[in-house]
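Q: Convert this sequence to structure tokens.
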Amino acid sequence: MNVTLDTAGWLMVILPVIAALSAGLYAARQRQSPYGQVVGYVLAGRSLTAPFFVASLVATWYGNVLGSGEFILRNGIAFMVCLGLPYYVMGILYGCFFASRIRTTEIISIPDVIRKRFGITASKWAAIAVLVIGSPAPYVLALGVFLHTITGIDVWICVVSGAVVSVVIVAKGGLRSDVAANVVQVVLMYAGFIALTVACIFHFGTDSLLSSVPAQLTEIPGPIGWSGIVVWFFIAMQTFVDPNFFMRAAAARTPGTARKGMFWSVACWVVFDILQLITGLYGIAHLPVHDGASHYLLTAEAVLPDVWKGLFLTSVLATIISTLDGYILVSATTVGYDLWPWKNHSEKFRLFTGLSVASVLSIVLAITVPSIINLIELLASIAVPGLLLPLILALRTGQRGRGVRRGYLPDWTLIVVPMVTALLTHLVNNLFLHVVEPMFAGILVSVFLAPFITREHVYN
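A:
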């Protein structure tokens, strides 16, 4: 599709991007934390107060907002019980049982906590799993496709340009720069969707909204069915091993900040999802049949004047860039801190090398696998089974040797075998017959192996 903007509309796109970049660069110049290089760069010196925690977590959560529009087009209000409710439940559980404990342990990353519980070999495999689930590639691709849509420039040029912008934001100041940019980005996210919602209400009215939408899209479970809703509850379990969640919980000023910040973040998700649903339903009711990926963009094109349309495009851009920034930083930390084999190199060198490696890998993967949804599903289905149970056990049982008796199998098998199982299941499903979801198979194997890895737990 072609998006038409006048000069004022383009300024509304460009200026907020400059504002986010400026906020990130300014934050990088602020007083450094008294902690070491890694904690100061990766966790902002564990200084996040509640407003910054919430702004950052909300901003990084919506990297595939155009996919939400496509989901609403196909499944209607079931969006709230598939892409909404499961994640609210997991977010609340994360706040209740994970967030404050992560902050209390004074650890830096998921592989770090795995190392303290299962040992160095297991931590290296966990780092590979984090590198898989935390890959920025889907969001590099999403940003490239979006920029191509509004500019017409070749996708690969847009992919590279988008990755460069994200690296510039986080390169100098790490999480501190990322959070500062997130504050600008989260304001833009809500402003753009509020503008589109208000414009739809004034343009189309409210009386006939649901009556103009096909009946199956106004019912639960709708076209996706109850089995589809159950599947999404399992998919939402990736929340527990999401490295962006972990990083922000570890960076909170206090354990209470991490716990309460999670609850406030869930409340903000609910509001944003309602805005997405309303605008999505208006598009279904009043626009001709179209490609789902362009659903929100076509709605904006139909009801918004150029300046406000520019704001909405910036809103979509902000959701993608904010998530991309977070995963670029996660991948850089994983490569430079958790996987880097030469510890004699300075922390600064390792982190910046990790940033470079993560960026190049994400660009290559984004160009090689040109499907956002396929990338996200594939990466999550492989990594989640390898991380979910080990992380829960690690956070609950503390360090190895303290209240834990060793089992019959090496600790690292609890990470590697479920991941290999998920990957093989994915290959079988594609080459032969779809037997079972790869994530289900991997998690079942993980649960089966757990008693053979650790025979006894004394929770403390």
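The domain at 7-372 is CATH 1.20.1730.10 (Sodium/glucose cotransporter).
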